[in-house]
Each structure stands twice: as C-alpha cells, then as structure tokens.
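hey can u check if this looks right to u? its 515 residues, i copy pasted from the old doc so theres a chance i mangled smth
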Amino acid sequence: MDITSIKIFDTTLRDGEQTPGVCLEANEKLEIAQALARLNVDIIEAGFPVASPGDFAAVSMVAARIKGPTIAALARANKKDIDVARQALEKAERARIHTFIATSDIHLEHKLKMSRLQVLAQAQESVRYAKQFVQDVEFSAEDASRSDWDFLCQIYSAVIAAGATTINVPDTVGYTTPAEFGALIKYLRENVTNIDKAVISVHCHDDLGMAVANSLAAVANGATQVECTINGLGERAGNAALEELVMALNTRREYYRAATNIDTRQIYRSSRLVSTLTGVVIPPNKAVVGDNAFAHESGIHQHGVLNNSLTYEIMQPESIGISRNAIVLGKHSGRHAFEERLKHLGYDLESQVINNLFSQFKELADRKKMVFDRDIEALVNVKKTQTAEWYRLDYHTVVSSNKTVATASVQLTSGEKMIEEASCGDGPVDAIFKAIEKAVGFEVGLKDYQLKAVTAGEDALGEATVWVEREDRIFSGRGLSTDVIEASAKAYLNAINKMLAACELPTDGQGEEDN
C-alpha cells in the first residue's frame, strides 16, 4: 500500500501566539521551537517579523538556533514585509518566506478595496520578489474557503508560475465543512494547470469545531501539507490541533494512506510545555492530550482495558509519551534516581537545572507520601516559566473563616530589601493578592485566576495560574505547591515579575535571574 508523506507546518509561534491573552517572550518561543524540533515537525512558522521589534528578534533567534525544520516567516504581499522577513531569516539553515493576500470578494471589497486583477498582480509580484531571496516560497490565499473557485485556480496558477513552491488554502474563518473543503482541494488539484510544481497546503480554523475534520478531508483529496498548532491554539476558537491531526493519521493510516514524520512520543510533553508557557489550560476532555484521554471510570471499561487495552483504547498512552508507571519516587530517592526518571520522561536538562529541580523535589517529597510523574513534569514546566525575580516570596500567613474577614501578611525580598505588608480581602486568595500588591507598591490588574490539582489525593500539588494586565498587555504566571494559597501567591508574583521584565514600572528591586 502506497503511503503519502504529509508535511506538518506548525504555526504555534505565529498563529498560536495570537490566542487572546497569550504573550510569549523570545526565550519562551525558543523553548517551544526546540520542542517542535524534537517533535520533528517539517516547518516551524516562527512569527510575523514586521509586526514588532520583539517578533523580529524572536524569529531571528529561532532561525539562528533551530536546526532541522524549515523556519518560515509570515509576510503580507508587499516588499516591506518581505524584506523584514528575509532579514529575520538570514541565519536560518532552511528558510521559507510565507506571503499572503486575501482573495474572497468580501475581503476585496471591505478590507483591501482592490479588484481581483489588482490582487492577482500583487500576489504574483510578491512571490516573484520573495523568490529572489529564498528558494522556498509559500503563498496563501486568505479566506480561500469563501473565495470563487475559478479565481483561486487563476491566482494559484499565477503564483506557482512566479516561483511559489507551496500554495496554501486557508479556511481563515472556520466556515467550510469537510465535504465542501475536500471538494475544493480536489477541484484545485484538477484545475490548477501547474499544480504538479507545488505542494498543496491547508490551514483550517475551528470556529465551527471542524478544523481537524476539514484538514483530514483535504488530505484525503490530495493536500500534502497541513498547518496546525499545539493544543489547537489560535485566534478565536483556534486552529487544527497538531496532536489530533497527527494521531488521526497515525491511528487510521490504512484509511488515509498517509503518514507524518512526527515523533509522537514527544506529543504529550510538548503539549504540556505549550500549556505552561502560554497559560492556556488543557481541558480534561481534550482529545489525545487531555487528562481524561486515557482515563476509564466505568467498571465495564476498566475490566476491558485490564484484559486488553485495545478494547477501549485506540491509542496507547506510551505512543504520545505518557508512562503507565505513575508512582515513581519518594523522599528517600537519591539524585541519580531522580535524574534517571527525568531522562525516562524525555527531559534532557543541564546539571545545574537538575540540581535545582532535585532540591525542589526533596522539599516536595517531604510534604507528599508519593511523588508521581505528573508532579515531576509540573516541577520542570513551572521552572520554565520563571523569569528575573524582582520580587520573591519569603513567607506568607493567612487567617480566614466563614465568620471573619480574611487577612493575609507577606514578606517579599526585592534585591537587598525585605518588604512586609498585610491586607484584608474577600477570601484568602484575594487577601494575599492584595497584600502582595501593597508590597510591590503599584496597582496590578488581575484578569483571571485558575487553580487545579496536578495529581489525585489529599496531598496533591496545587497548580495556580494567574493572568495580569498592564499597558494592554497580558502576562501569565504559574505557581506550584501542596499549599494552594502559596501556589497562588507564587503564580501572582511570577506574573508580576514577567510584567516588570517587559514594562518600565517603579521598583526598588535589583532583579535576580532565576536558574
């Protein structure tokens, strides 16, 4: 049976970062790019360089540091965008310029104020211009799913003639359906005269919950590149989820007769890393990577799985990097055992980082009877969210009951200075947040707060996530502790430290780099 190779184009760092509330720093983008390289994605869309100096710097860093995947940069169909994109990609081992312009009549009339002939000319000229700098040029017809099919054939033929090596068919607003989108891909394959000279790609959004289904329908009809993001991140309802697409093709290989080059064992930890760095929590019922994806509560299901996992599991948890061996270490475990467990979980860390994590593990082991793999993963991932420490929590005290007003006191360290403050609030978390706000000396705009248990049991780690806003930018912070109040305070300070790293705010703290 012939198997078609499907390229995975990951746009977590570009379209994924456009998720409302997500703001990644350059080092966080590099961390995700390294995870994508371990996943063995074919193309990493590192960003939209012309959008901001920060985005340009991040794309440049990823281009210079990541080897293996092709590094793509997005550019509108104009010379300025393309010039900035090629500059950002200058040090890439393999570079791709991805240029786009809208093609639907609604976009032409209300956004571009251009005719079809003008769009056609601009698209062709932009591809021809980009081709001077890189051999690999991708062209996207924005809002293709709502565009006239014959006009799409015309514009794709023109850009391929101008040098485009990939033509992308986006369902920009998540409007199409699987049957309709599959028919469109088939129509393009049969009516674009020079289609044999380019790869057909698709980029589907999830506004109607059909992004993955539409992408798979496109594959079934001849598309050989799929654009997606980790955990389905993206604008509005998001994009097609990489993990769902890859595992659908992997699990149903005989049906689709297609396969990717993805190392599926890296899926789970990549998903958790992206969730940690973006602050977007993975729903427990999320396909493939959700907490419940391999959980079985029904007695009938449990009995079947124990006899043969294939009764209710169409995928093995090990195939995406989840170990069935949940309980791993305790307070008597040594550094060597801890390091070996990290390697088993797929983490290749520097010695100093391991030393710091081992100290945190020993503190955790003193509080918990049993330490699970998920606990260790949480320690590693929360460590990745740490930034320069303008403020560090030394201790906290909270008094709260249903008959009294909650009060909290905190002691923070800022450089050489120790700060103590207290405050009242509507519950213990509100009280400690207000005490921290008094201690740092400026107003913090709290946008959202979430708390969840990492594992089961009364001594489970609590993982807190907070989002704060400053100057129209949102910063997320994570905190981890068996004490949920402490976890909340750490998360709040983590978000404040990120804010201070990005914005010029008044502080007496000198800042210490957290290793």
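DSSP finds 17 helices and 18 strands in the chain.
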